[in-house]
Amino acid sequence: MRIIAVVGAGAATPKEERLAEKVGRGLAEAGAILICGGRGGVMAAACRGAREAHGITVGILPGTDAREANPWVSIPLATGLGEARNAVIASAAQAVIAIGGEWGTLSEIALARKMGRPVIGLETWQLQRGGQPVQGICYTDSPEEAVRWAITLQQTVGEGQSCGS
Amino acid sequence: MRIIAVVGAGAATPKEERLAEKVGRGLAEAGAILICGGRGGVMAAACRGAREAHGITVGILPGTDAREANPWVSIPLATGLGEARNAVIASAAQAVIAIGGEWGTLSEIALARKMGRPVIGLETWQLQRGGQPVQGICYTDSPEEAVRWAITLQQTVGEGQSCGS
Amino acid sequence: MRIIAVVGAGAATPKEERLAEKVGRGLAEAGAILICGGRGGVMAAACRGAREAHGITVGILPGTDAREANPWVSIPLATGLGEARNAVIASAAQAVIAIGGEWGTLSEIALARKMGRPVIGLETWQLQRGGQPVQGICYTDSPEEAVRWAITLQQTVGEGQSCGS
Amino acid sequence: MRIIAVVGAGAATPKEERLAEKVGRGLAEAGAILICGGRGGVMAAACRGAREAHGITVGILPGTDAREANPWVSIPLATGLGEARNAVIASAAQAVIAIGGEWGTLSEIALARKMGRPVIGLETWQLQRGGQPVQGICYTDSPEEAVRWAITLQQTVGEGQSCGS
């Protein structure tokens, strides 16, 4: 069973939410379990898309009350860990799809890469070191391609991997 | 949706495993999601029982590799948190059923009580302070009663609560 | 450098606070660093004792604001982990001294034993399995003996170890 | 008492190590406690600088063995949390100085910004969204300026803050 994280800000643009909903739907249709932070914005849109396609959605919440989850989370897990829950999301996923996003999203991208999980980016952070783009994130504009990459990329990948196949 | 934790040692007696399997089966039949540490012994037996009754089982693993989960975990979450994952199990559950158990199980009982979650004990730790038994754990010999209490007890309970109903 | 945890409830009796203050003083005089949950009651009394003897005290706080620490914490670390910070205290200590205590204290005792750390008990929880006392906690009435054991017991101990020497 | 984190990769360039050593020394001279991940590279160099100026250094280690710390850590805390320890570093610091760095460093930058902690960058990640640089990190080439900013910037800052003063 494939477990894929969708990460993005609680305050998302309409375009980001449309992308997230398509990604969620695609993951469910591919038989993957969707894991996310369980709150609003990108997270809620992705869960909504997944549930419309009869998928399972897991919300890794920062607080201690499962009722903080958005209505499309089927398994709300109130971790009580605060922002450290972002490390749990990155660790538990076999691949991460980042959509838009603020600082919390960036932390999930970075933690996932630190742990060797593939990261696919849709309209998200661009990263540079010494004026050069950094390798290690697979960028695309297409939610369908994002889903395909998330499903097929191997869990432990090197910096030089090819995104598509 | 009700989320109930089953906690107990990875090295369990045959009797403890029989109890755990009945508890897992009962939780699934009651429509609850079973959450546990995802490893062997009591955890594996409870998951096996739940899956036989077509339930969903979530394994909150200490390490970073989902393949550490027992074969009856339907959603393995490799947290990477080590023993701190016990706090996640206690926090994410609406009630905890403890069966047998060693030190890790005791930590889950204590964390659950600290967080106000009801704890039901089957053949598990007996606790005293100043030579007196401590209130706050609902003991029973019956896996059916354990399931019934776990389903019906409210999430936030005081020390003086009544176990049954 | 020896790092010793003192664990106990935020709401302590005067006797427990006197014991904690003596333990804190003794640890500082022995050159150990005191680690604790950083809050009131037993934690504050132990820190006060240590600081009076010019020791270093580390407070592993559950929240995100260092100002939650008691005034005798020299290094307040606001972890933001909630109750999962108890696992950090147990892991970071080379031995644990438990004084009185409620559920949070019991979780720290259990996590420390799970991790193989020696636990010394002063007026704290008594534990039984199957009607028999459980091995693995060194009980004493003397704060001086508690300090001596905490300083001398090795970090990784088996269940059958002898407490004193 | 001011607690400042220095974050950076375990595999650092000689230039990054020189910067880190100067930052560590400066923090100690300013009376701040240095907190870091406790390992090699930037972390070791910063601790070495701080200890040469008689400062206190706290190492928040990912594993369960304090002996993983570099020799210049005065208080090694073996959290057992794995990569989630990065969230503890960000949360416990009043400001973060990032030097060079790989994915783990980026996660600490992002978590610190998410938590409202000021971040000062020396030869570290450059971040963009939609082709535009992102506000919220104070870049400098000077270790002295980095220390001055870390000491003076307030803990809770908005995106539009001015770095220097």
Written description of the protein model:
4 copies of one chain form a homotetramer. Chain A has 5 helices and 9 strands. In chain A, helix 1 packs parallel to helix 2 and helix 1 packs across helix 5. Chain A is globular, with a radius of gyration of 14 Å. At the B-D interface, loops of B face loops of D. Strand 7 of chain B pairs antiparallel with strand 7 of chain C, so a sheet runs across the interface.
Write the layout of secondary structure elements.
The structure is a homotetramer of 165-residue chains.
Chain A lengths: L2 E5 L6 H16 L3 E4 L5 H11 L4 E5 L13 E4 L6 H8 L2 E5 L3 H12 L4 E4 L3 E4 L2 E2 L3 E3 L3 H10 L13
Parallel strand pairs in A: 1-2, 1-5, 2-3, 3-4, 5-6, 6-9
Antiparallel strand pairs in A: 7-8
